[in-house]
Every structure is written in C-alpha cells, then in structure tokens.
Amino acid sequence: MRMYSVFQPKSLYIGPGALSQIERVIETIEARKILLVSGPTVEKLGLVDRTLQAMGSYRGHTEIFINPKPEPDIAIFEDCAEHAREIRTDLIIGLGGGSPMDLAKGAAVVATHEEGMRPLLGRNLLRKKGIPVILVPTTAGSGTETTQAVVVEVPEEQTKKSIWDPRTMAEAAIVDPDLTLDMPPRLTAETGLDALLHAVEGYTSREANPMSRLYALEAMRLISNYLIKAYQDGSNMEAREAMARAATLAGIGCSNGGLGAIHALALALDSRNGFNHCRSLAVLAPWVIRFNSEGNENLYADIAKALGENVAGLSAEKASLKASEAFLRLFEQIGFSPYLKDYGIKKNELNALALKAYRVGQRLIHMNIREFSEEQTISLFREAFGEK
Questions:
Q1: Does domain 185-385 match CATH 2.30.42.10?
Q2: Which CATH code, of 3.40.50.1110, 3.40.640.10, 3.30.70.120, 3.40.50.1970, is assigned to 11-180?
Q3: How many CB atoms lie within 10 A of CB 32?
Q4: pLDDT-derived band at 274, boundaries 50, 70, 90
C-alpha cells in the first residue's frame, strides 16, 4: 500500500437549482472585479445571462470573455489571461463545457506567471496560485470542474498538451443539471462517453488508488443506468442530474487516479477533421479496453459489472472481456461507430497515425495499466480501423 493524495475543489454545489448559490460563493471569495469566460453556444442559449442574473449585485462588476474557438489554443489562453490582468480581475468564472472551463482555469494561472503558458505545460510546474476560479459546467462530460488539469491545443504540433497541477483547482464548482437540459442527443451521448472513459481510466490507471476507484466505480454505475435515458429524453431531470453527478465523480476519479492509453492515443486524433475529443476517445475505447484486460482481469470484470453486464458464474477472464462488449453494445444504442474507417481515416494512414499516437501520447501512456509498444499500438489501430 502506498501513500496517495486526493484533490478536489474546496466547495461542490450539486443538484437542480445549484446555480442560485453563485452569489453566496462569490461573497466568500470577496471578489471586486470578475471575468466570466464562456462560449458562443452557451451565450446563444441564454445561459450567460442566466448566470449573470444569479450573480445578483456582482453582475455590475463582471466583464465577459467569449472563447472564439471550440478547442482554444495557447494564443487564446494568453489573450484571456492578459485581459484578466488588464481589468485587475480577482475572480474568474468558467461557464460551459470543457473548453470554456479549461480556458478559465488556464487563464487564471497564466495571469500570475509572467513567462506565458508554454513553460507551464507539464506536471507540477506552477510556482504560485492563480486567480481564484468558480466553474459552472453546462454539459455532463468533461469533469473539468473538479480536475487539476488544463488542456490546450498546440496547433504547430497538431496535438494537445496540459498543465497538470493542483494549483489549477477551482475554489468552487457549481453543478446544476438544469443547465444541461438544452444539450441535443448527440452531444449528450458524446459527453457521456467522455465521462465514462474518465471513470474507466481513473479506475484502471497505474496511479489509481482506493479513493479514485470509489469515485470512478460509482460514476460508471450512474452512466450505465442513465446515459441512454438522457439521450432518449433530454427533459428527464432524474437522468440529467445523475449524468451531471457522474461527470463530476469521474472527474475527481481521473484527476486523482490518472488516465491511460485511451486518452494518450486519442491525442493524435483530436486535431483531425471529423473528430472531437469525445469521439477520439470513444472510437479507441473498446480496443484499448480489450488489450488492457489481459493480466488485469479482475479490474475489468469490475467494470463490466458496473456497466450492467451479467458476470455471475464467469471466470475473471471471461467477465473482463464483457467490459469491451458493453461499450460496443452502448455504441449501437446511440448510433456511434467504433471504427476509424467510418470517420475518414484511410487504411494507408494507419501505421503513421499509430506511431504519431504512440509518440505524442508518451506523457500519459506511462500511466496505462499495461505496457504498450509501437508494434502493439499499430495492431490496435488496425483493429480499431474495422477490417479483419
């Protein structure tokens, strides 16, 4: 048994109507000037105005920064940080999916580090705290509101990198499922898969611990029971609340337990046309899970059971294989293809793509429960391509 640590926001407000607590949370931080970071879709849906209204008297002390790109790059993070410095903000609120919340967290620490963002990319490289942050998710997937990571697009390297440091942690997270009711079915499904894969890797990573597994396993159970319900009926508040809670639990799980090869290898797909972060993860998931289950049968049998598979009377080996089967069955229910060939990837690209994935994923692959080689990565990409 080894020592482990658990990081999460100082305060979590979870459940329908949680947004009503934001004025009180701001009071505890004693903020005088606030920067609200969000995205154009969130603004269009009226959620920026709704949040400003919930902020009460603090609305008049707030400026708005709208993230111009779905996947913000270093230049956008630095622009946002510079704006925060110019207006002397002492609180940043991130409102939206993973990207606006990442932007809020990242700008908060870049604003207090004069050297810019690039030297901060990596693990535990921050020298000081950032500006205090409150995070308010409007999707149920990224779990960014509870993690110690900030993800950024690095266009010149055609990949994503991250700041991984507990100093990026939010002062408070406000998880109100009312804000997720406008998510369309496809976004509901993809963000739900994102949360599910945070839970799977938070459970199986080499850095996983009893607490991360506790959070991750409950997240898997919730998603297994409620993702399809939320996908089929977006107005189902019971399902929306369960998915919002699951995403938050999964975020705590992977932030404290680590990730693995699914996230590592997906980095090579994230910047491709036809892919977003959720899609990149999901299309690789069944094949990585099947690979990882060898030698780790008990862990993946736990996952299969959490995902609703009947494993009674099965050997650990046979039960573990049902974890990947559960994913394939879930994909069928939401009309999602698990094959790279269906997203514009050509067969003659596979070797180069796999080798790139192995190279750019090194910072996460070391956390994977089973070691990967370049040759095994190529084999996995061929399996994920969808041709025998």
A1: no
A2: 3.40.50.1970
A3: 11
A4: confident
